[in-house]
Every structure is written in C-alpha cells, then in structure tokens.
C-alpha cells in the first residue's frame, strides 16, 4: 500500500467519459484534472476538463496526460483493456486502481471461469463447449456494442476471429454488482438492474444504456448475498483493489457473471445519489491505505425509492444547439457542448430519475429521453 493522499492532492482521472468520477473526486476535496472524449459542459466547476482532439483512445489520452503534473491517477473505461497503457499512465504517480498485471488476469475470460469454478460459483460456458445459444464477444469489450450472436454450426463461423471469444448466452435479467475491494475483503455498494439494448434510449442489441438501483431490495436478500459472494471470490482470486463491478445475468436464483469491470463503473454515481456516500473517497482509501468503507449494502436497510440513469444515444446525426439549460435541473448530465456534432449511435447525454419502484423509474427515464429527442428534433429544424 502507498501513503494516504494528503488533503487537496492533485488527481488526474482519464477514460472515455470522466464527468462522474471527476465530480466525485472534486467533492471529496481533491484537485482534479479530467481528460476524456468530451469535456462535458456540466463538469464540476473545480475540475479542469480537457477533451482529446481527433478521436479518443487510451493511447491518445495517455499522450495528453504527459504534461499533467499530479499526485495520483485513476482510470475509467476502457483503460482496463490496455494494461500497458495503465503501466505508462501510473509511472511516477500513485495508481488509484488495479495494477496492469491484475487487469491482464481478471479480463481473461478463461481465467475468470476457472476462478469461479474453484469457488463453486456458476459461470457461462466458453468456446462452444456445452449448450448454446452463443455470443461472440471481443476480448477488449466495452458497453456491449460489439457483441453479436454466434452460430457455431455455420461453416463460415467455425473459426473464432482473433481478439474474440465465444460465451454461452444466458437468458435472464441483466444486472451488476458494484463493490470496494482490498486484501481484507469487500464491501458491496449496490446491486443494480442493467438496461440493455432498449430502443427507448436509442440502443439495440446488447448495448449498455443504463442502471437502476432498486430501493425495495431488502438487506441480506439473495441477490445481495450472491453479489457479495461473487465480489469476494473474484477479489480473492485476482487481488482486486478499489472500486470494481461485475456484470451478470440473473436466472433461477443464480447469478451468472459475464464480465468483470475492474475500475470505476457507470453505476457508482447512483450509489452516491441514493446513499450520500463518497465513492471516490472509498476508492482512494482502499487503494492507498487498504481501508474499507463502513457502508455495506448487504447489511444496510433499503432506501425506499429506486434511483436510475440511462444513456441517450443519437438516432440521427445531430449538431448540438443551446444545451446550457440542460445543466440546471440535475436530471440531465454529461451535457454536450453547443456546436458538437454527434453521429448516429453516439451518446448524447445521460438522464436520471427517482421513483417509488424500479418499473416507475424506468418509465420516468424513458420520458426524460423522449424530451431529449424532442429537443434534438427542434435543433435539427432550426
């Protein structure tokens, strides 16, 4: 473990979209520089936000970070797929996150499946060995955009393309568990419903488009216990540290983990909205001093309301008009800057909702997305 970060330490955060983690870090009292694909309009006022010009990749972001003098660095998607970039990013900086060797191991689907088997936990079959149906997935996955059905009986599909693997498709309810990890164990931050491929938000197929934290889930429920068991097993096997997430499919009282996200994930800010805790503080403390937070969703009472977020994707190419009013209500975040060209299928913004039930929360998210699409049509007609 490294020394604890002093108050006001300068933290660099980078990844495809950093607004949420940068805001959490700023609220925790750190000086923050954020480098991502957007430099959204609604970054926390204390954050110095920069967008990578001419297309974001982890390597292009790395080049942009070289001139930033900072005490520590944290990463979000999709740095977990580039351990060599993480190694360079953290050179002579305190790394708030999993080390490159941990990323290499935990992102290997075969090593993950073997680890789950050792802990007598369920996992989807791999490589067409067992009952289908099957999915073709990239090893460097992110957001589900490149996942597609796979028919192993088709003559054209007998060889798995380089950089991909085949995973059994489990029919059920998609979800995720978010947690803080140290060598001493884990604390569950929450178990979430995942919104996948919903046309209401301009998504299709297996594309991630949001999460809902069901406020009616009681402490100690089977899903929280199963999520905690998953988090504990993966942490013990791979030595995870800080905040992490595991995507799963729930079916028949069993969680089938499909992927580990060994970094800050999109659901983290729902924890902050629901429980008022500082997730970045928990992340930094776990990575520097090995301290776990006192909060644990496994033993905390339900909050009595559902909190959700959804990513709104563009259905047509659009040029952003006056988006500044979107910054005023707190229910629209990741606000693009006026004049930005957003291509079909790219994210426009994120909408939030709170409601008594998870279903009502999902309906409110769809309503808010419709308001965004109405505004986009108005801009297109001007």
Keyword list:
five-stranded parallel beta sheet; D-amino Acid Aminotransferase, Chain A, domain 1; eight-stranded antiparallel beta sheet; 27% strand; single chain; Rossmann fold; alpha+beta; 26% helix; 382 residues
| Rg of Cα set | 20 Å
Total number of helices: 9
Tally of separate domains:
3
Tell me the name of the CATH homologous superfamily of the largest domain.
ATP-grasp fold, B domain
Q: How is the main sheet built? A: 8 strands, antiparallel
What is the mean pLDDT?
95
Give the fraction of residues assigned to helices.
25-40%
Shape: globular
Biggest β-sheet: strands ordered side by side in the sheet:
13-12-9-10-11-14-18-16
State the low-pLDDT regions, or none. Answer: none
Q: SSE string, helix = H, strand = E?
A: EHEEHEHEHHEEEEEEHEEHHEEEEEH
Which structural class best describes the helix and strand composition? alpha+beta
CATH architecture of the largest domain: 2-Layer Sandwich
CATH class division of the largest domain: Alpha Beta
CATH topology of the largest domain: D-amino Acid Aminotransferase, Chain A, domain 1
The tally of beta strands, per DSSP, is 18
Through-space gap between termini:
56 Å
Tell me the β content: 25-35%
Short description:
With 382 residues, the protein is an alpha+beta fold. 26% of the residues lie in helices and 27% in strands.
